[in-house]
């Protein structure tokens, strides 16, 4: 009986020691708790690292320069509202000289084919208006029978030399020269072609877009020619001879 009581006391002492050991073991931190405290690679509580350039957190939107950048379509500076769409107005074309703005007279040319007829004549045009205008092109020529425009006899004209626009300021001048088939011989003369020479008191000389003028030779006389033909220059700013 005495032995049994000591055996039970020893058993109780060992049980108490085992319980104390178990209690101490439960108080020690386990591997997972240690990992969370020391930053184990497999832990989910790992402190975030700074984002690297090019990562979604720092990537800039295409076409912009940052949060304050304007959309790509508005990157160009806008013109001031006060500047008109067309800064320089288009230059208006200078008008053709009107018939009433021109003063014309006709005289016999110094350089003309040999013969006894008129040979060649020059018409001088002066801009009598107060505005600049232009002349261009070759003249038409008609003989006025008996000096009457309604009895005009158009001459066949052949153009010679280039045509260019001639700008006439107020009081400026331009010229055309007409060369005829010359009358030969003395007295009434004759035509090389065999036709009969023709004389006109006046000629009707026209310019494209500028009407026509009925003109007599400045020094008088009849405009004698053959074959109702003339070679004409275009309007020129250089006085012909």
Automatic annotation (TrEMBL):
Highest taxon listed in the record's lineage: Bacteria
Comp. bias regions, Low complexity: 75-93
Region described as Disordered: 30-93
Descriptive protein name: DUF4232 domain-containing protein
Residue stretches spanning the membrane: none
InterPro entries found in the cross-reference section: DUF4232 (IPR025326)
PROSITE patterns, A to Z: PROKAR_LIPOPROTEIN
The keyword Signal belongs to this UniProt entry's keyword annotation: yes
Signal peptide residues on this chain, from the entry's feature table: 1-21
């Amino acid at each position: 009986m005495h032995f049994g009581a000591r055996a039970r006391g020893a058993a109780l002492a060992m049980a108490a020691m085992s319980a104390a050991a178990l209690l101490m073991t439960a108080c020690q931190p386990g591997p997972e708790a240690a990992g969370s405290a020391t930053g184990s690679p497999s832990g989910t509580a790992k402190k975030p690292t700074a984002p690297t350039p090019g990562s979604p957190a720092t990537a800039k939107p295409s076409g912009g320069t940052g949060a304050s950048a304007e959309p790509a379509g508005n990157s160009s500076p806008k013109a001031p509202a006060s500047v008109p769409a067309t800064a320089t107005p288009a230059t208006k074309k200078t008008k053709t000289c009107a018939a009433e703005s021109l003063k014309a007279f006709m005289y016999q040319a110094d350089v003309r084919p040999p013969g006894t007829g008129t040979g060649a004549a020059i018409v001088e045009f002066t801009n009598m208006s107060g505005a600049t205008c232009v002349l261009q092109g070759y003249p038409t020529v008609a003989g006025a029978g008996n000096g009457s425009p309604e009895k005009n006899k158009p001459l066949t004209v052949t153009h010679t030399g280039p045509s260019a626009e001639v700008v006439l300021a107020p009081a400026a001048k331009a010229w055309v020269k007409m060369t005829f088939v010359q009358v030969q011989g003395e007295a009434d003369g004759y035509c090389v072609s065999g036709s009969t020479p023709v004389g006109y008191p006046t000629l009707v000389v026209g310019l494209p877009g500028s009407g026509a003028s009925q003109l007599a030779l400045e020094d008088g006389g009849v405009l004698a020619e053959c074959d109702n033909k003339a070679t004409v220059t275009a309007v020129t700013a250089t006085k012909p001879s």
